[in-house]
Specification:
heterotrimer; A alpha/beta (about 300); B alpha/beta (about 300); C alpha/beta (about 350); A: about 300 residues; alpha/beta; 13 strands; globular; B: alpha/beta; Rossmann fold; 2 domains; four-stranded parallel beta sheet; 12 helices
Chain lengths: ~300, ~300, ~350
Amino acid sequence: MWLGVDVGSVSVDTVLINDKIEVFKSAYLLTAGMPIEAIKEGLRKSRDSVPVLGVGTTGSGRELAAVLTNADIVKNEITAHAIAAAHFVPDVRTVIEIGGQDSKIIILKDGIPVDFAMNTVCAAGTGSFLDHQAQRLGIPIEKFGQLALQSKSPARIAGRCTVFAESDMIHKQQLGYGIEDIIAGLCKSLVRNYLVNVAKGKPILPPIVFQGGVASNEGIRKALEEELGMKVFVPTYNKLMGAIGAAMLAKKVMKDKRKTSFRGFDICDMEFNTQSFICEDCPNTCEIVKISSNGKVLATWGSRCGKWDLSK
Amino acid sequence: MVYYHSIMKIGIPRAGLYYQFFPLWDTFFKELGFEVVYSPPTNASLLKKGLEYAHSDICFPMKVNFGHVYWLKDKVDVLFVPRFISLEEKKYMCPKFMGLPDMLKASISNLPPLLDVNFNIRKKPFIRSWIEVGKRLRVSANKVKKALVKAEISQKSYQWNNLNGGDGLKIGIVARPYIIYDKYVSAELIDRLKEKGMNILTADNLIPEIINKEIAILKKPIYFDFGEKNVGTALHFLNSGEVDGFLYLISFECGPDSLLKEIIDDRARTSDIPYTTLVLDEHTEIAGILTRVEAFLDMIEYKSKTKFNL
Amino acid sequence: MIKVSVPNMNVVPIVVKPVFEELGYEFIAPPKMSRKTIEEGAKYAPEFACFPLKAVLGDFILASRKGAEYLVIFGGTGPCRFGWYGSTLQIILKNLGIPAKVFVLDFPTEKWARDTFSILGINGSSVKKLIHSGLIALKKLRLIELAQELARKIRPFEVKIGESDKTLQKIYKIVDNENSFIRLMKMKNEIKLMFEGINKNSNHELIRIGLVGELYMCLQEELNMWTESKLGKLGAFVDRSAIGLWKYVTGDIGLNFAHRRAKRIAYPWLKWHAGGESIYSIGYSLIFERKGYDGVVHISPLGCMPEIVAQTIMEKCVNIPILNLVFDEHTGETGVNTRLEAFCDLLKLRKE
């Protein structure tokens, strides 16, 4: 069994896969601002007695997850997503991944990523765009997709950023648009923002795999298909693709290595303390984070000059 | 090379420097016997195409420009998209104009041939650029010169901005030509204000001497085309009090204006002429612009009333 | 003694110091660029101004707090916005109540540019001495650029990661403190030996990446989040032959033949140099492609006019992967790291 952990800005996904890259156990948890607790909880849920042969971590919190698990491989989420998508859809040409605060497009050829792009300056093409509006409308995000599908004439919601989109949405509400039309409009708006901000200039060719948390939203998928004029495939484990990719990478790297460095599932019950402080030794004023367990410092990071790094 | 078949159709995108030179261009090509096809005034669907093809970080007017070219590309035999490098001695257009024909070629496929002749007054007078345009269209230099004489007359005699007359408020508007005269981009601001009985003053209502006098205070001359004209106009408004207030329209991501605005802001700090900046881009809501303009006008009116009461 | 400062631009403060000291000024180096510089600059600069202006403003504010009275910056007459920096900075500083004067070094052929030179005393001081200090400055620049080149070569192979960066910092200090021309002449071998002393692990496959983009952003590593060094540590040899201070100086007067060649190669795609580094970004990317490089990293500040032109065209004409990195004061380092890592992964996978 190989363990993959994907620590994103919004959620933590853990997955255990077997030799044939089948998902054996998995967990999807919201971080709710406490990534360490979420990682522990995720591991607890995918805990099993079968031996773990390797651990891979990915996502923006990959370093943290790597410290907690003592991972065999730490990989960025772009590579992880590409590898997982190419496994489930071997001839995939385009991977569209929309996550909580990041979204990306990956172009593949013969199962190998050849180009990619990520959102740069704004989050208008990401899940947080919908989350904000869902909160404002008082509609649980899970119902968003279903409601969007009921719309017959989606409202046109303009806006480069979530704030402007919100003011436009309020305006449309004042004009008397129905809730489902507004939601469908938001879905369209997110897709437009994604295509303009992230996918601009990239050759979007079928087959297209759409993954990440937002892919569960039927409304977004429909809007994406309409805008692209192509069929979009959402894999069964859309939310777990990053973690699956990390696990696959662990499997790959363990070919040449004998024993995993995994700390074991006991970490679910270990106490981890984080301590952060600002180093004022130079004008960079780096924020240093120190992680320790049972009085032993496991890792520090954040310093520009490397002064606080632990020598391994 | 471009070849004749019946009457050649020359496409002119209604964007960019069209708004500065259309009387000249129109007369010139028509004098030479070509059919001139214009893209329609900017509209939402045209802009949508522009957004699709232009780089997302490029300025708003360029995105508009891409949309116009896209609209024309299958309807004409040749597109007039010159490379504007310098319009005035010791000035430069912004880099995006210098690279416009190349960017279009790189971004939009199946374009008709482009008349991408260099217009660079630092290197050669415009008449030589026009002769080159003629050459590409297989027209003799003599014919070009004759057409150009007529074209220049119509350019000079064009009335840019008519004053309303009457005793409404006098409002100045400072902006690049492709912002102020593109009704979609500027949210029809001139028309809307005129309808309210106001007098609108733009840089085109001022004689060059006034502008030159104002910018003489700058130690280093502004090297952007339209830079001196806009800054000089704004300074004149602030110094002379000829207007009751003025608006400065800039497009989001406009490189030159982002810095030149500092000169105007600096002078405005010590002037009591009301002034406000409106930043325009593809996400601008007309309602938002109008709200701001309305508030601005209210402020002026309130101010002038208290003045009269004194 | 009047105190003079210049903006941080890679090693410019080190290089120009001997010249200003020769002219009889006290040279104040701006504090090493840090988050504070960028924050100060971004606070007072126009919102839509490009990122380098904000950084330079930060430098000027901090330098004037250290007592600098004259702030010197290069000029230019377009089409890039850089030529107008001086005038803008002067207005902003004036409104902040900072008495320091901004001196713009423009072409002395322009009448309005001449009095800057006479105030700085360049016209009055001894020609012989000026040439001497100028030579020292040039020598320093050449030495530092040599060290940077060596660091780029060694980074992908270093056993102890970060060692070449540390060596580089050491060399900056040594070069800064050495003012004898003769000893500077002898320093070349010393620098080479310092880099040879770094432990190398030579048996791993190398990916080769060409770096192109806007000059200041490419050189000022605090602004580009140490892209060059990070790529090296990820196992990539970074070719920065497209950009460098020496190149810039020689390229501007047409003496740089590599630059001329790049221009020629880019010509079919961009028929007029649209200012900044636009035509070189395109030309060198095409050269890197011809040389069989694995990829190109393109660095530009947000809203940079010439580089947007270059980017639009590069997407069409360059057939190896390009990573566009656009920076401004809001850019997060995590995102940059992820992109760099993923880009190197992608290039490695393509090679397999």
